[in-house]
Design goal:
The chain folds into 2 domains: 64 residues, no CATH class; 47 residues. It has 3 helices and 3 strands, in the order E-E-E-H-H-H. Strand 1 and strand 2 form a beta hairpin. It starts with a strand and ends with a helix.
C-alpha cells in the first residue's frame, strides 16, 4: 500500500490517501473532487502560487496527452505537415523551398502509410 497525493487547485489543498481505496477524494475545504497526482510528484507550499500554476499546467498537459490515441496524434501531424506545405508553396520562392517541400511530402507519405496500416 502506498499513499498518493490528491490536490485541489482551487483551494491549494493536498491530502494523502491510499490509491486503491480512494476513487473519488473530496477537498476538505470546498468539497469538490480533487485531482490525483501520484506519489512521486511533490506538492508545492500553499503560498507559492507560481508553483501551483505550473503544477496545474503540467497535469493538464499530461491528461490531454494520455487521452489522445496514436491515430489522432498521427492525424494531427499529417494536418500540420499539409498546412506547412500549403504555406511554403504560397510564400517562399521556388529555389529556396524545393528541398523542404520534398522533405514534407516524404513525411506526409510516411504518415499516410502509418495511418492506413493496421495498428497491432
Amino acid at each position: 500500500m502506498r499513499n498518493s497525493s490528491w490536490v485541489c487547485f482551487d483551494c491549494k489543498e493536498a491530502v494523502r490517501r491510499d490509491r486503491e481505496r480512494s476513487n473519488d477524494v473530496l477537498c476538505p475545504s470546498c468539497g469538490n473532487s480533487m485531482t490525483y497526482l501520484g506519489y512521486k510528484i511533490p506538492v508545492p507550499p500553499k503560498r507559492n502560487t507560481k508553483k501551483w500554476l505550473e503544477l496545474r499546467e503540467q497535469i493538464l498537459i499530461r491528461k490531454s496527452y494520455t487521452n489522445k490515441t496514436e491515430s489522432s496524434i498521427l492525424h494531427e501531424q499529417l494536418d500540420a505537415c499539409t498546412e506547412e506545405l500549403k504555406m511554403l508553396r504560397k510564400a517562399t520562392p521556388s529555389s529556396h523551398r524545393k528541398s523542404r517541400v520534398l522533405e514534407l511530402q516524404n513525411k506526409r507519405n510516411r504518415l499516410k502509410a502509418l495511418i492506413a496500416s493496421p495498428i497491432e
